[in-house]
From TrEMBL:
Its EC number is 4.2.1.33. Pathway: Amino-acid biosynthesis; L-leucine biosynthesis; L-leucine from 3-methyl-2-oxobutanoate: step 2/4. This is 3-isopropylmalate dehydratase large subunit. [4Fe-4S] cluster binds at residues 300, 360, 363. Its cofactor is [4Fe-4S] cluster. Heterodimer of LeuC and LeuD. Belongs to the aconitase/IPM isomerase family. LeuC type 2 subfamily. It comes from the Bacteria. It comes from Anaeroselena agilis. Residues 72-285, 289-411 form the Aconitase/3-isopropylmalate dehydratase large subunit alpha/beta/alpha domain. Keywords: 4Fe-4S, Amino-acid biosynthesis, Branched-chain amino acid biosynthesis, Iron, Iron-sulfur, Leucine biosynthesis, Lyase, Metal-binding. InterPro entries: Acnase/IPM_dHydase_lsu_aba_1/3, Acoase/IPM_deHydtase_lsu_aba, Aconitase_4Fe-4S_dom, HAcnase/IPMdehydase_lsu_prok, Homoacnase/IPMdehydase_lsu, IPM_dehydratase_rel_enz, IPMI_cat. It catalyses: (2R,3S)-3-isopropylmalate = (2S)-2-isopropylmalate.
Amino acid sequence: MPKTMSEKILARAAGVPAASAGDILWVNVDKAMLDDILGPRVEIAEKMLEIKDEVWNKDKVVVISDHYTPPANAKQAEIVKFTRDWSKRHGIDNYYEYVGPCHQIMAEYGHVLPGTVVLGTDSHTCMGGALGAFASGVGSTEMLGILLTGKTWLKVPETIKVEWTGRLAPGVMAKDISLKTIGVVGHAGATYKTVEYCGPAIEALSLDERMAITNMAVEMGAKAGLIAPDQKVVDFLAARDITTGYELITSDPGAVYCETHAFAAGELVPMVSCPHEVDNVAEVGALGKKAIHQAYIGSCTGGRYEDLAAAARILKGRKIAKGLRLLVSPASQEIWKQAAADGTLSVLADAGAAILAPTCGVCVGLHSGVLADGEVCISSTNRNFIGRMGSKNAGIYLGSPLTVAASALTGVITDPRQFI
C-alpha cells in the first residue's frame, strides 16, 4: 500500500515494516534538542539526576541557549548559566549559545537529516521538515523520558497535502505561501496532522525559503510540516561534509491524504497576518494605510540570508520612515557573517536599521526590542499573539521580509511590489 512521508519515516524509526495513520508507535529518536527556555531548567535537570546520571546518548542530544541570549537581566543570565552548566555536567558536547535560534542552528550544524526523527522542546522544531526529517516539538516532561531512554511514543499523523503550482511573482515570498495556507487551513485545521507541501512552486524554492514554510506548520496545529528532500538538501548537507547517514524518503504515488489543498503561486500576492491570530490573514492591499512603529526582520522564520538580502534590495539607497524603528536580527552567526562580508548588513544599517545579535529575543518578547502600549509592529516572525512581543496592548502583523522592508520605508504596512 502506498505510504506518506510521515508513515514511512516513523515506521523506520520504530523498526516496523510499515505503518499507517493512526498507529501508535514506540520510536527511536535520532536527535533530541533542548533550548534554554524549556530545556534543563524546566524540571528536567533535577529529575534526571534522581533517576540516572547520564543521558541515553550524548551525541544525539543538542542543547541551545537562544531565547535568553544575550541575557537582558540577571534572571535570564542565571537561566543561561544553568543550561550551560547542566550541559557540561552531563557531557553534552553539542552545546551552543549566542549563535542563533535553535532551529537554524540544528540545520546548520548538521543535526537535522532526511528520514530521521528530530524532537525538540520548542514548537517550531517542525522547521526541520524542510530537510525531509520528521521534526516536531514536545513538552519538557516528554523530553525527560527521551533523554533517559532515547525513545518515545508517537501516533502516526494523517497528512494534509498542500500543492502549489506555477511560480511566485516578483515581490512575493515563501512567507506569503505560508500565510496564505494558514489562512485557508486555520489555526487548528491541521491539529496533530502532517502538512506536506509539494508542487512545482515548492520544488523551485531554495532551502532558506522552504524552512520559512515548514517552520510555521505548527501555526495550523500540525505535528509536522514536510517537504520532500531533493538535490538541494543533498547539496546543503554536502556543504557541511555530510554525505552519508541519511535517506531521502518521499511519499509514494497514490499515498492516502486526509485532505488536499491546491493553490496557484502565480496568483498569490503579498499577505499579512493581522492581530491577534496567525490565521487572521489578509492581502496587504486590504489594510489601507495601517501605521506602524516598529519593523522587525529576523528569527528562525524570517532572518536567513536570503531574507536579509531581499530586504537590502528594497532598502538600498533609501532611508526608513522618520520616527520608525527597524530591527534586524540574522538567524545565526553564520548568516550574520555572510551578510556582513558582502555588505548586506551595511546596506540595512545605512537605511537606518539597528543590527542585533542572532537571537530569539525580539520574536518572543524577552529583550532587544519589545513593544510598548499602543505600538504596532510588522514582523517577519511566526506568531502575533497578544503580548507576544511585549505589551498586551500592542499589535503585531506578520509579513514577508520584503513586506517588512517596504513598510519600514513608508511607515505604514505596504505592498513591496511597488519597490521591486
